[in-house]
Amino acid sequence: MPAFSWLALFFGAFYFVYGAYLPFWSLWLEGIGVSAEQIGLLLGAGMAIRFAGNLLIMGRIKGAGHLLPITRLLCLLSLLAFLGFYVSHSLWWLVALTLVANFIYPTLMPVGEALATRMVVQTHLDYGKVRLCGSFAFIVASTLVGALVGNFGSEWVLHTMVAGLLLMLLLSVLPLNPAPQELQGERARASLRDTLKSASVRRFLLITALLQGSHAAYYGFSAIYWKAEGYSGTVIGYLWALGVVAEICMFAADKRFLQRLNAQTLFLVGAVGCVVRWSLLGASSELWVLVLGQLLHAVTFCVSHLGAIRFMTRQLPAEQMIPTQGLYAALGLGMMVAALMTICGVLFEPLGGGIFFLMILVVLPVFVLRLRVPAEGTPA
């Protein structure tokens, strides 16, 4: 199967599952009797273990040829892990299974991104168009699950995820053409330790950790907060879907309108969007404010993420791309979100929507941080 089609299907399946998990997993936990503080701890523990999973699993990938076998194994283990949530709802079982599931499943994100960035370099793949297929699937899932939760109950969050994981496993065994391969003249893959010796990589990781970490309150508690404010599961699903519609538009516009912008500029635009968005969501739960805030997802997440892809595909030597992808997922999309999500879990009951204002403080340092990198080369 051509690289574009394979990756479009894979991203679609992964983000379909993620579209059920990210907005609604907290509601599933609430539905089985878990308290808000315990939800925060479970979500935080899950995000924290991603750090170890991303580093250990990505660290085992010795070259581009290992990406597909690892992807298929992770799909199988992810399905088995989430099937385990049917077995018991005791707190210690939930803790243990949360750690296992989040050690395995989220690593499919950096592995998939590593496949995509490899194809960007290897076949000049249009990353934005491939990635927007995942965003579209996220919309379908969040809208579908929102309706299912509203009409049939929160147990449908898990049912939908298991169905999506089974589909992802089946898709992953399809052949990818061309297969990922080492580039001519490429040196052996750099280790995580060697990659971290780069000052530009460390600065990049700090910036992305702050930008993506500031989404912790939104990812962990927006659904619970909006439900408490009187919105139905269907409306919450539509709100999440709207944010991803905006994300799709931004991904689609990337190659045509954003190609001249370097990573630093994209990070600054993302930071401005974060300040505006978290201010809006913290100040009001009026529907028009939530709609505007969700449209800004195109800036807070998407533009920031495109900045990360721009840095990794244009400004890194090829041997550092896979380890940097793993570090980005572990720190920017994992550890920072985990720490902040745990804090939000403790503060949600006393502060309510005020936890969004705390996220503004997280992102402010981005305005004074600067990437120290050589001039950009070939466009992504």
Q: How many structural domains does the protein architecture include?
A: 1
Count every helix, treating DSSP H or I runs of 4 or more residues as helices. Answer: 16
Which CATH architecture?
A: Up-down Bundle
Uncertain runs are 374-380
CATH class placement: Mainly Alpha
- At the fold tier of CATH, the topology name is Growth Hormone, Chain: A
The SSE string, one letter per element, is HHHHHHHHHHHHHHHH
Mean pLDDT: 86
The profile of the biggest β sheet is:
none
Q: Span from first to last CA? A: 22 Å
- Given helix and strand content, the structural type is mainly alpha
Percent strand: under 5%
GO molecular function, one term: lactose:proton symporter activity
InterPro entries: HcaT-like, MFS_assoc_dom, MFS_trans_sf
Domain Major facilitator superfamily associated: 7-358
Membrane topology: Multi-pass membrane protein
Task: Provide a short characterization of the protein structure.
With 380 residues, the chain is an all-alpha fold.
Please provide a written account of the structure.
This protein has 380 residues and is mainly alpha-helical. 76% of the residues lie in helices and 0% in strands. It has a single domain (3-179, 192-367), classed as MFS general substrate transporter like domains (Growth Hormone, Chain: A), CATH 1.20.1250.20. The protein has helices at 3-31, 36-59, 67-83, 91-104, 108-123, 127-152, 156-172, 192-196, 199-213, 216-228, 233-258, 263-283, 287-295, 297-314, 321-351, 355-363. The longest helix has 31 residues, at 321-351. The chain crosses the membrane at residues 38-57, 69-86, 92-111, 132-150, 156-177, 204-225, 231-253, 265-281, 287-306, 327-348, 354-373.
